[in-house]
Design a protein that fits this description.
- InterPro entries: AA/rel_permease1, AminoAcid_Transporter.
- It holds the Pfam family AA_permease_2.
- It is a multi-pass membrane protein.
- The structure is a single chain.
- A two-stranded antiparallel ribbon has the order 1-2.
- It has nine helices and two strands.
- α8 crosses α9.
- The longest helix is centred in the N-terminal third of the chain and has 30 residues.
- β1 and β2 form a beta hairpin.
- With 230 residues, the protein is mostly helical.
- It is extended, with a radius of gyration of 21 Å.
- Helices cover 61% and strands 2% of the residues.
- It has a domain of 103 residues.
Length: 230
């Protein structure tokens, strides 16, 4: 995503500074807002009521905002839409770069003539129905992001003197990985079967520099989940 910056070298901030600065600012901002929201919930709602409520935000709006109860579901939907939009933005760019490096067919490295967006990569993501995107692509994309993070740590260990455009503090990465192992995931057997297949390699019969690649989207094209239409 660093290549998508409009002005990677602007003023006093360079690529070595603005990428970590953007990560730190975004994480701090999101964390502060989440903490403030939870403090507001516990101020107006008791713990017992929180456990029994199916829509905590709606209950909070009933007691605090009174007439704005109907607005809360709309705001939640807009928040989900923004998250989905950012996921599509990041996913299509990764597919675009993979095709540019020879790991995908060259058509996915093409961009729109006027808007300069990776249109074929975006269309490949749009092809899947919404529940497939939610149940499969999210886990697969984060799994391969974890592998990429692990690869960077291994590369940093084996090549400590290799020049890098920017650096991220190693304790921060370790803390985030430790936090990820504390999250409990529950899913169905069919989804587990599909997610196991995501981690397998699929050969791409082309003359590109890389004959093998691992991608959740390509595996979704190669297989048909039991019990679904395909």
């Amino acid at each position: 995503m660093a290549t998508q910056l409009i002005k990677p070298y602007c003023g006093l901030f360079t690529l070595a500074l603005n990428i970590p600065l953007a990560i730190i600012c975004s994480m701090v901002t999101v964390t502060v807002f989440y903490v403030l929201v939870n403090v507001a919930y516990y101020t107006m709602i008791s713990p017992a009521e929180l456990l029994l409520s199916d829509a905590v935000a709606v209950m909070f709006a009933n007691r605090m905002l009174h007439g704005l109860t109907a607005v809360i579901p709309v705001l939640v939907a807009l928040s989900c839409l923004g998250t989905l939009n950012s996921d599509f933005f990041a996913g299509s760019r990764m597919l675009f770069v993979g095709a540019r490096e020879g790991h995908w067919p060259p058509i996915f490295s093409m961009i729109h003539i006027h808007r300069h967006t990776p249109l074929p990569a975006v269309l490949l993501l749009v092809k899947y129905i919404p529940h497939t995107l939610i149940n499969v692509v999210s886990f697969g994309s984060w799994f391969f992001m974890a592998l990429a993070t692990l690869g960077m740590l291994i590369h940093r260990y084996h090549f400590p003197l290799h020049p890098r455009p920017f650096k991220v503090s190693l304790p921060v990465v370790i803390a985030l990985n430790c936090k990820a192992f504390l999250i409990h995931l529950h899913t169905s057997l069919t989804k587990c079967y599909l997610l196991c297949l995501i981690t397998q390699r699929c050969p791409w019969p082309s003359h590109s520099s890389s004959q093998w690649f691992a991608s959740s989207l390509w595996v979704c094209l190669c297989i048909q989940t039991p019990g679904t239409q395909g």
